[in-house]
Amino acid sequence: MEKLKHNTNYFIDWKQYDKVGILGGTFNPIHNGHLMMAKTAKFFVPQLDKIVFMPNNIPAYKNQSLIVSNEHRLAMLQCALKDMSYTTISDMELRRGGMTYTVDTLNEIHSINPALKIYFIIGADSLFSFSKWYHYKQILTKCTLLVAARNSETKKLYEACSSLTNNYSYGEIILLNNDEYNVSSSEIRTMLENGIIPENKLPNNVIHYIVNNKLYGLDKYDESRKNDGTTQNQY
């Protein structure tokens, strides 16, 4: 993944905040599940000054060849968040380049504002695999984890939380009652590659952006439709 040049549109002065939520991910693409996590975090922790969406540069556990450009991912974030005034976007991990590790991001932010209280927002699946994260014990000392919990997984999540907090007394984990919403970026990409527009899974303006820029295989799909003479759907 290319290293992004500095863009003041995504620069954050971390010194201006006392408490922030950070929602990281590839956002490839950003979908309604991500937005629901942010809304849930703000509802349960209303004292958050901002919820910062922070796209990864090179995620440690994902195939980067499937990730669209940094510019496209940032543009889709802008589309999705334009009406959510309590959110903002940081390109810190993109500008840093290289492999993205959460502990490095937390260290960089605290080097700017050591007193900043950080709430790191993750989904249930991330909590279940949290012990595999790079320097996960250090992460627990540098932030509070906000876990978007689905009702069907409550018991399993409590067990995972207990395991982490019992073994590492410095860890603080808060479970958020998140509505059931089963959606993944990989599922959305597969639908798009097959010419299916996932209207109930993506914000409308993100759909428009993807269609207009022919992302996620839509260019190949459109070409195949031309070749077989099938009329194309317009969005």
Describe the protein in words:
Helix 2 runs antiparallel to helix 9 (204-212) and helix 4 runs parallel beside helix 6. The protein has a six-stranded parallel β-sheet, sandwiched between helices. A two-stranded parallel ribbon has the order 3-5. With 235 residues, it is of the alpha/beta class. Helices cover 40% and strands 17% of the residues. It contains ten helices and eight strands. Mean pLDDT is 87; it is low at 226-234. It is globular and about 50 Å long. Helix 7 (154-167) links the parallel strand 7 and strand 8.
What's a quick, concise take on this entry?
With 235 residues, the chain is of the alpha/beta class.
**Amino-to-carboxy terminus distance:** 30 Å
Question: Which parts are unreliable, with pLDDT below 50 for 5 consecutive residues or more?
Answer: 226-234
Specify the structural class: alpha/beta
What is the approximate shape?
globular
Number of strands: 8
Biggest beta-sheet profile: 6 strands, parallel
Q: What's the alpha carbon Rg, rounded to whole Å? A: 18 Å
Q: Strand-and-helix sequence, N→C?
A: EHEEHEHEHEHHEHEHHH
Strand arrangement across the biggest beta sheet: 4-2-1-6-7-8
In round numbers, the mean pLDDT is: 87
- Helix content range: 40-55%
Beta-strand content bin: 15-25%
| SS element count, helices | 10
